Every structure is written in C-alpha cells, then in structure tokens.
Amino acid sequence: MECKGKERIKNEQSSGATAYVFYFQLNNATNQFLKDRSNSLFDWISPELPEDLMFYQNDKCILAVCSHEGYFMVEETLWDKFLIS
Fold first, then answer.
1. Which of 16, 19, 44, 64 could share a disulfide with 73, CB 3.0–4.6 Å?
2. Using one digit for the tens of pLDDT, what is the confidence trace for 36-58?
3. Is the pTM of this model over 0.70?
4. 67 to each of 19, 52, 53, how far by Cα in Å?
C-alpha cells in the first residue's frame, strides 16, 4: 500500500488544530488493510487509525464515514447494489 499524497488542512472546529488528509489507491492490498485493521468503518478513530474515511470514484464521493459521530453517507446507486445483493 502506498500513500499517494498527504495534505495538511486547518480544522476550524478544533481551535486551530491541524487535520491531515491522506490519499490511497483502493486495490486488493488496501482492501485487505482496511479489513485487517478493524471490524467496522466506525472503528476508524484517531489516534490509532485515521478517521472519517471517504471513498471516491471518478472524483465523486461514494462513501463518507464520520467515525466518532457514528454516521455514514453512501452514494445512492452504490446503496441500491447492497440492497439488491
């Protein structure tokens, strides 16, 4: 697994704290990494694991997770595929 880039952004809601954004290519290796590190998307909480995972396909967010708040957003056509399966 290779991190394609790291971006530092100012987090306005955390008293000027800095948030880091990491970009990874999703493939079999990253898929296995995600499965091995937790039992749920909501287990991804800092500092042990990066939190608030977002998955993009063709520059469109298809899955966004807010781990510490316990909610997620799934792109509608992707959600429909889960319901049909």
1. 64
2. 888 888 888 777 777 788 888 88
3. no
4. 15, 6, 8
